[in-house]
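Hi everyone, sorry if this is the wrong subforum. Our group has a chain we'd like a structural model of before ordering constructs, and none of us has done structure prediction before. Sequence below.
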Amino acid sequence: MSDGGLDLDRLRKLQLAGAASRTGGKGVPRRKVIPRAPTGGDDKKLQGALKKLNVQPIQGVEEVNMFKDDNNVLHFTSPKVHAALGSNTFAIYGQGVDKELTELVPGILNQPVGPDAMANLRRIAETYQAQQQAAGAGFPGAGAEKEADDDSDEEPPALVEATPAGGASLEDIN
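Answer:
Right subforum, don't worry. Here is the predicted structure as tokens:
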């Protein structure tokens, strides 16, 4: 009994074997895949490592600025700060924003900083100023305008006595 090379008995046996191994059945709804949030395994490892260092939370930190070599600042607003003073280790939690130094300079200068930080700020300011001068040197006349602005800031020009156009003095006119 072979129709075109297909054995019907053998086909029925395969269908029955397939039906027996099927999970669910006809009319059973499909399972929905539920996305799961990350378990935070890295955070748990980090917390464990920090716990070994005996870190303590520091309260009252409003902002944290980390200076980079490319004159940018990694700025944290209202971060959570933990410190282990014995091992000189600080952990900063929060959303960090990469900003340019010029955006933060007025606020940074009002904050108390140590002598090392002030020296670094001076160095960064000098390199930034050198970069600005190099960028300004590419435009013709950019340096001349800056010099004219500097002269106007020093002191006002001396008053000159007014004379009429004919060259006569004021006394001759009266």
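For your construct planning: The CA atoms of residues 10 and 16 lie 10 Å apart. The first helix runs from residue 8 to 20.
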